[in-house]
Specification:
heterodimer, A: about 325 residues, alpha/beta, Rossmann fold, 2 domains, six-stranded parallel β-sheet, four-stranded parallel β-sheet, 12 helices, 10 strands, about 15% strand, B: about 425 residues, Urease, subunit C, domain 1, TIM Barrel, seven-stranded mixed β-sheet, five-stranded parallel β-sheet, 21 strands, about 25% strand, globular
Amino acid sequence: MRHLISLDDLDAADIAGLLSTADHMAEVLGRPQPKVPALRTKTVCSLFFEDSTRTRLSFETAAKRLSAETLTFTASSSSVNKGESLRDTVETLAAMGVDVFVVRHKTAGLPLSITRWCDARVVNAGDGAHQHPTQGLLDAFTLSRALRRGNDLSGVRVAMVGDIRHSRVARSTVRALHVLGASVTLVAPASLLPAAFVGSDTVPEGWPVSVSHSLDDVIGDIDVLYLLRMQRERMDNAFISSPGEYSAHFGLTDARLSRLRRGSVLMHPGPMNHGIEVAVDLDTLADHGVANLITRQVTNGIAVRMSVLFTLFGTGSEAIDGQ
Amino acid sequence: MASDHSSVLITGGTVMNRSGEARADVLVSGGVVERVEPNLDANVPAEAAGGPRRLVADGCIVSSSFVDLHTHMREPGREESETIATASRAAALGGYGACVAMPNTDPAQDNVAVVEFVRLQGERAGLVTVAPSGCITVGRNGTQLAPFHSMAAAGVRLFTDDGNGVQDPLIMRRALEYARELGITLAQHCEVARLTDGAVMHEGCCSSRLGLPGWPAIAEVLMLQRDIELVRETGASMHFLHLSTARSVEIVRQAKNDGLPVTAEVTPHHISLTDEKLASFSTLFKVNPPLRTMEDVESLRAGLADGTIDAVATDHAPHAAHLKDQDLAAAPPGMLGLQTALGVVVAHSGCSTKRIVEAMSWAPAAIAGLDATHGRDVVAGSPANLVVFSTEGVWRQTPESIVSKSTNSPYFDVDLVGSVRHVVHRGEVVVAGGALR
């Protein structure tokens, strides 16, 4: 694996391999000194053109746990546009000896463009509504390990709820969960499904999902409730009427919580909007026998990102065992 | 004795006129076609004996040179990407004898001073006739009508805010009233902007998978429908730029059946490339309107073949490398077209050679109001604006062959068919053997 741009570029064996390596990394993270020398000679540069402290810190922590040097470049796209071109920025940083760029940008495809502009490895940390591959991997990792299923999620029923249209998380996580065998139902108003779903009763080619427009119809028959972040700005182009209207029909409310199966789990990629998609007190989940995996997703993000960075260089497994 | 450079003899070709095609040699002298007859070569003095310069056209078509209704020459204001001189070179190599210069320059072509400058720069370059279009609204901002009377008096025949659709129905209605009075043609870029905010590609299966904001077909269709009704009401003529959807072809076909004075064009890229190209995330394939589906491509080809779509127009849109080396949202839309148009049209349109000449020369010359000098049959007395081209021979474009200032062509790794051999402009040889003079 030279770059990680999209989970569509990985087959089932690739994904299983990354998850198994993440098991090793989780073990490393459990040690008194949670650090290995695997990437001691490498420099990892976070190249974030869109704000995301959480994802950036998760990647940088992963790089440090592998003993890589870390650099951080953050800029809003607008400030970049004022002067130096994006390509110039990339070439300048690459000339400083960066081995890996971890890239976030508001536009789909920019991480792939960077692979054409320099020799460094590129890991996509989220590009527009395209892909956020490490999120997909950490979701698959978190779910499969919580359910003690190894790399097999066959028969597991997932409802992914919310703004699928604008979600890079959906495009990555659906792929990862599908590859492991889970069956995914997208739940959203038509306006928040990708355009290819609109005006058709059949699911478009390339989407291994079923679709529902009613969370109430599916909530009693799922093992996993995966809520996506609902942004208030979606009112601007009439994707939703109001956050309240959305919450009433697609949010996790007390009434819906009581209908979730005991033993089911809740996931969310963060950051959460309390009162919109999450309209319950999360402390009450346990009373209903529902496990909250949200914090575990964050924790596992580091092990999964270590696995990705490590796998880019195909270093031998001894590198993570030796101290 | 030196040969007579004021005259040219095109030998061995097949002359394509509206009445049909015939093997004939073509003698050009004093800027006009003097004789069109078989075997002239044997009957006029040889070049070495002081006779006319010979241009060999064996196996080639000889016709009026091509006319591009849609060329972004970028001058004034964007000379880093293209100039009128470099665009003229590209046009001549593409077989063109005239180009309509699009008005989205900086300053815009919304007044006599700028359109006269553009025309004059074209004369200075001296390779093709540069016919400036005029804006419909001042600064192409959609709110204040441009000075139609002044620009029409300066010879502007085609008015457009290309790059922007005229959004306001009141402005478009008034503009059409002026157009009818002045006998000018408005050319609309059909795009309801409210439906395409932030769009970088066709909205559909591919955009949904790639997570790229989509430009829905309906945004073209709605404005096309509106403007056809405005044409029906006002009686003014309107030309529709770069049709891109299957439904658009049906709508224009119906409007023509209704007898309305509408014309339409299609670009080479919209009959040869689809939205799947964006899976590469390459900004070379970002164009406005966007590349659409194979169903749209097939309808556009059929519409071009049956005459529903009158003309092929390049929408030649050069952009300097640093402008295209951005993310897809920031990169400007557009691709080169002049040097590859014929090769793409022969390879992909499925049209007969006669239909190609009609769509690339005769029809656009009439739409542009250039038919006194361009798009004429090759007969004695016609102005000598001629192209000699072959419809055979597979070739591939190389970056080195591009004479535009920019290299944003999508056609590097694809087979093109048919090429331009010679171009005569106002009686002068400007391209010989596929090379500029």
